[in-house]
Amino acid sequence: MSEKVKNLIIRAITGAVFVAIMVVGISFRPDVMILLFAAITGLTIWEFTGLVNQSENVAVNRFISTAAGIYFFLAVAGYCSGLTPSAAFVPYLLTVVYLLVSELYLKQTNPINNWAYTMLSQMYIALPFSMINVLAFRSTPDGNVTFEWLLPLSLFIFLWTNDTGAYCSGSLLGRHKLFPRISPGKSWEGSIGGAVFVMIAAAIIYFLNVGQTDGLVAGMPLWQWLGLGLVVVVFGTWGDLVESLFKRTLGIKDSGNILPGHGGMLDRFDSSLMAIPAAVVYLYTLQLFA
């Protein structure tokens, strides 16, 4: 068996296991989804801080940054699900203050670098992942909270569909580079093809849910599902490009090797880091003008 075929098999097996874990983790039970994404948040921040610490004059506290990100995710999950009050965010705020003040005493060569990368780990990773809870939990008029598992799952279905559609379309039709300075492999034809596949996936999800009476998704017409798919395509692509710029700046090919054949956590979740908050803004905008 050639090395190329072996790598393809490893990549396919890893991808299948990854998708299965994500689908079951998101749709099974709310506590399972929370634990899954708390782990994803922690692993991604740990990977990110390890990468930036390889740069000159950077010494981010990996443990506290990772713990803070996980705690923030759990605090948002608790608040959105109605289990904890807003006071749950106070320890996180104290941790942020500590990370700022501690640089006064550590005598690092460039504390601004440490501050910048520490806060970037929270803004770029912890905050976007935490927004999955805003998608998953909805307050009803009678004061109860419902678990809208279809929204976060649909978002990832759109991302996976976009990746697959863009790859197939780009391989067959790709002629015009989308962003050659950062990602030479991406083409406009691939991006358009990915968007078309996502529109089809959005329509399928809509028609599968016609007749449902409970939850936010039951009241979403077809055009709103198509709009959500388009938002995920655009911001997911930007998320991919942002991570590509991050890796180019650091001079690395993959962010890690935790997922055989797929690289690291940032490689796997780069698109979602912009698509999740964009989806939240889109859905809340619809509610404002509904």
Automatic annotation (TrEMBL):
<dbReference type="GO" id="GO:0005886">
    <property type="term" value="C:plasma membrane"/>
</dbReference>
<feature type="transmembrane region" description="Helical">
    <location>
        <begin position="222"/>
        <end position="242"/>
    </location>
</feature>
<keyword id="KW-0812">Transmembrane</keyword>
<keyword id="KW-0444">Lipid biosynthesis</keyword>
<dbReference type="Pfam" id="PF01148">
    <property type="entry name" value="CTP_transf_1"/>
</dbReference>
<comment type="pathway">
    <text>Lipid metabolism.</text>
</comment>
<dbReference type="GO" id="GO:0016024">
    <property type="term" value="P:CDP-diacylglycerol biosynthetic process"/>
</dbReference>
<dbReference type="InterPro" id="IPR000374">
    <property type="entry name" value="PC_trans"/>
</dbReference>
<keyword id="KW-0472">Membrane</keyword>
<feature type="transmembrane region" description="Helical">
    <location>
        <begin position="34"/>
        <end position="52"/>
    </location>
</feature>
<comment type="similarity">
    <text>Belongs to the CDS family.</text>
</comment>
<feature type="transmembrane region" description="Helical">
    <location>
        <begin position="149"/>
        <end position="169"/>
    </location>
</feature>
<keyword id="KW-0808">Transferase</keyword>
<keyword id="KW-1208">Phospholipid metabolism</keyword>
<keyword id="KW-1003">Cell membrane</keyword>
<comment type="pathway">
    <text>Phospholipid metabolism; CDP-diacylglycerol biosynthesis; CDP-diacylglycerol from sn-glycerol 3-phosphate: step 3/3.</text>
</comment>
<keyword id="KW-0594">Phospholipid biosynthesis</keyword>
<feature type="transmembrane region" description="Helical">
    <location>
        <begin position="115"/>
        <end position="137"/>
    </location>
</feature>
<feature type="transmembrane region" description="Helical">
    <location>
        <begin position="9"/>
        <end position="28"/>
    </location>
</feature>
<dbReference type="GO" id="GO:0004605">
    <property type="term" value="F:phosphatidate cytidylyltransferase activity"/>
</dbReference>
<protein>
    <recommendedName>
        <fullName>Phosphatidate cytidylyltransferase</fullName>
        <ecNumber>2.7.7.41</ecNumber>
    </recommendedName>
</protein>
<feature type="transmembrane region" description="Helical">
    <location>
        <begin position="190"/>
        <end position="210"/>
    </location>
</feature>
<keyword id="KW-1133">Transmembrane helix</keyword>
<keyword id="KW-0548">Nucleotidyltransferase</keyword>
<keyword id="KW-0443">Lipid metabolism</keyword>
